Amino acid sequence: MLFPFxxxxxxxxxxxIAIPSHSSKNARVFxxxxxxxxGLARQRLARSTAQVGLGDSGDERYSISVNFGGxxxxxxxxxxxxxxxxxTDKCTASHCSGGLPLISQPSNLSAISGLVRYGDxxxxxxxxxxxxxxxxAGSQLPLTDQVFIxxxxxxxxxxxxSKSVGILPLGFPLFGxxxxxxxxxxxxxxxxxxxxxxxxxxxxxxxxxxxxxxxSLDSPMFSVALQRDTVDIGGxxxxxxxxxLPSGVDNxxxxxxxxxxxxxSLTPSPGEVAEQYPVPWELFIDxxxxxxxxxxxxxxxxxxxxxxxxxxxxxxxxxxxADVVNEIYSRVSSSYQSSSSPNINKxxxxxxxxxxxxFSIAGKMFPIDPRDFILPSNDxxxxxxxxxxxGYSASDLPQPGKGTQFSWSLGDPFLKSVLTxxxxxxxxxxxxxxxxxxxxxxxxANASALLTEVISEAQKKNGGNEYQTIELAPTTLAKAAATFxxxxxxxxxxxxxxxxxxxxxxSWAVVVAFAAGWFL
Length: 520
Ligand SMILES: *[C@@H]1O[C@H](CO)[C@@H](O)[C@H](O)[C@H]1NC(C)=O
Ligand SMILES: *[C@@H]1O[C@H](CO)[C@@H](O)[C@H](O)[C@H]1NC(C)=O
Ligand SMILES: *[C@@H]1O[C@H](CO)[C@@H](O)[C@H](O)[C@H]1NC(C)=O
Ligand SMILES: *[C@@H]1O[C@H](CO)[C@@H](O)[C@H](O)[C@H]1NC(C)=O
Ligand SMILES: *[C@@H]1O[C@H](CO)[C@@H](O)[C@H](O)[C@H]1NC(C)=O
Ligand SMILES: *[C@@H]1O[C@H](CO)[C@@H](O)[C@H](O)[C@H]1NC(C)=O
Ligand SMILES: *[C@@H]1O[C@H](CO)[C@@H](O)[C@H](O)[C@H]1NC(C)=O
Ligand SMILES: *[C@@H]1O[C@H](CO)[C@@H](O)[C@H](O)[C@H]1NC(C)=O
Known about the structure:
alpha+beta, Aspartic_peptidase_AS, Peptidase_aspartic_dom_sf, 13% helix, single chain
């Protein structure tokens, strides 16, 4: 995720649980009718919902297949940022030589350079450019003249290692730099008016933002279910649905909560009323529990800041305040000794022991499946695990009225356990249709038994098999085995990742522990 720099102050004026009022057809991929005009010319009508499968790199990185100006490639799915970029074949960084299908250098680069910095200290830079065409897997939701950063230098190795050439951002415009950099290149650094900002978003915002802005989706939203393919006995099928909920999921089964709004540096144009805007996908949380016991509140943040979390597909772990994370480490690991910066390497516990970290949101509990809570403490390790939770130091935590206000980040462990709907509402006039998020837990009742089963199986196999997976993003959806409250479940797989024909199931596919990929 990326940290923005232009927040004035925050406000928490929205509260309570809201149910989206914007109606959506129960989202399905529908084949586009072929319109016939006089003569035999065929015309394609715009499609307003798309449902695509996700690639999976070691359950730490999730990707999507896209078409960039005619070439198929894959991008990392990131709800924690807002700038679209792709590495071009003119990239000089050593990371770019890994044989990826880099996109061709666009012929009409602008003279404006863009630099995005991520929470892990990595960055990507290049010149802004426009691709004449952009679409999602299988030519879905085509766009023309999509602005992106043609990256020629990056050290975001974790992205390239997962065989993605860049990032597909799903954040709000105000969390990005693209529109602001392009606007200030022509307007200077004066604070933009809302009119200027909205005009700029129409042409330079990221793909899904543009679709929401022009009202071309069934519903101004997308939803994400992440698969669990390393420690796997079934589980969600990885699906991104743009424009609605996945087919089969009933919206009344989700718990909806408002997205935090901020005062930002946009000058209302004459006739516009000052509004507050969503910046990251940030949800209020009531409390955090470990194994059914509430965790103490952090003493590193002011009690006046309402507790909240961002929901970030681009983060391989869950993050929280250092003191609370120390508490989690101490509770799961008998030998752990607290320190001011929590040391994950020392927070070891038996992989066989199920632990449930749960978040109370919008009045409901959302547990992380015990299988998603563990990480191997070393390569090929199935005895000792560490929690998939990392601490935010005091300097990363919010201060009242300054910058973003979240103190937790719900990364992939959360999104493997919870189907999440991201409802943008009206991006330019949030008060007309408020942004919100909907959650549906897909953790089975016997998740703890499933953890114990899979780990003991792996231990019997002498340290587990060493199957490590990078599954490329599919261009279609695989057939689901069944559904869980309407959420498509992945078919069971054997130890080699093939779809199981018998009762053989995946055991522990050892991920390379502490893969560079955790920190985005
Ligand atoms: C946000 O701006 C509104 C006026 O538009 C103001 O009333 C409110 O106090 C501001 N909130 C914060 C946290 O500064
Ligand atoms: C949810 O379903 C209800 C009725 O089934 C409908 O009125 C409402 O618009 C739906 N909301 C969304 C976001 O799909
Ligand atoms: C590049 O070409 C597209 C049309 O293909 C055009 O819309 C865009 O403005 C051009 N970009 C630049 C930077 O000249
Ligand atoms: C990545 O590159 C940026 C810019 O050159 C540099 O500031 C940063 O320290 C680098 N990060 C890492 C993790 O190498
Ligand atoms: C690479 O990107 C930088 C901006 O980050 C730009 O100044 C430079 O001209 C670019 N080089 C090429 C070959 O595109
Ligand atoms: C958002 O609300 C404004 C003000 O009511 C309206 O003009 C605009 O069309 C809305 N945007 C969309 C995409 O519906
Ligand atoms: C914060 O301080 C209180 C009072 O000393 C303490 O009970 C609590 O455990 C502390 N919170 C954390 C997360 O350590
Ligand atoms: C978990 O529950 C499922 C569905 O009820 C069942 O098929 C499976 O055998 C159970 N597994 C364990 C290890 O309890």
